[in-house]
Automatic annotation (TrEMBL):
PANTHER family: THIOL:DISULFIDE INTERCHANGE PROTEIN DSBE. Keywords: Cytochrome c-type biogenesis, Disulfide bond, Redox-active center, Signal-anchor, Transmembrane. GO terms for biological process: cytochrome complex assembly. GO terms for molecular function: oxidoreductase activity. This is AhpC/TSA family protein.
Length: 215
């Protein structure tokens, strides 16, 4: 083997080693939480202990998550149990939504259109009252950031912590945020809306178009 060939092979080996090292470094630095991440690995971070969440929960002052309704609830959501961000209680999602007309809003704390839309969701809930349940679903494992964002916005809607995006997967929601799912009282999906809303009027129009006037 010539000297030049030896040098060429040595250089290639060095390049391969560098690529492997960089790949390992990127994998170790990767965290499943963050903008644009398609699937988070956990419902919440290890740092989000009950003690750490106590003050953010106090500041957010969220409404309680829905109590179990009448019936088994949406078939696609059966078996999914998540944390209620407001108080840390566990929620059987299908049972909580059973018998209710629901506007299910999927968002994340880092999503700018989501934070612009959330106050409109809160205003729509205020207008429509108990005829419709507006439930938000936070789709990132950073639960502290979600609570602080809701406190900042003055939005007190009940919120589920769903870092693994199990609800979106079960309802086949496109991988965009925000997205809204309209659920009928019988548990069927009226519409999946992978878009943002600018006002409570827009939300009301979408609900009426897909589910009729809700009173």
């Amino acid at each position: 083997m010539s000297t030049s060939t030896k040098w060429t092979l040595a250089a290639l080996a060095a390049v391969v080693a560098l690529v492997v090292a960089l790949g390992a470094q990127m994998r170790s630095a990767y965290t499943p939480s963050g903008p644009g991440d398609p699937v988070a690995a956990r419902d919440r971070r290890d740092a989000d202990t009950p003690a750490a969440l106590a003050e953010p929960r106090r500041r957010a002052d969220l409404a309680p998550c829905p109590a179990p309704g009448v019936g088994p609830g949406p078939a696609a959501l059966r078996g999914i149990e998540l944390e209620c961000a407001g108080d840390g209680s566990r929620v059987d999602v299908a049972r909580a939504l059973a018998g209710r007309t629901v506007v299910l809003n999927l968002w994340a704390y880092w999503c700018a259109p989501c934070t612009q839309e959330l106050p409109a969701m809160a205003e729509y809930q205020r207008r429509v009252g108990p005829a419709v349940t507006v439930l938000t679903v936070h789709q990132d494992e950073n639960e502290t950031a979600a609570l602080l964002r809701l406190a900042e916005l003055g939005v007190h809607l009940p919120t589920l912590q769903d870092g693994r995006r199990r609800i979106a997967a079960a309802l086949k929601v496109p991988n965009v945020m925000p997205a809204t799912v309209l659920l009928r009282a019988d548990g069927t999906v009226a519409e999946v809306l992978p878009r943002s809303f600018d006002s409570a009027d827009e939300i009301a129009a979408a609900v009426e178009a897909k589910m009729g006037t809700v009173r």
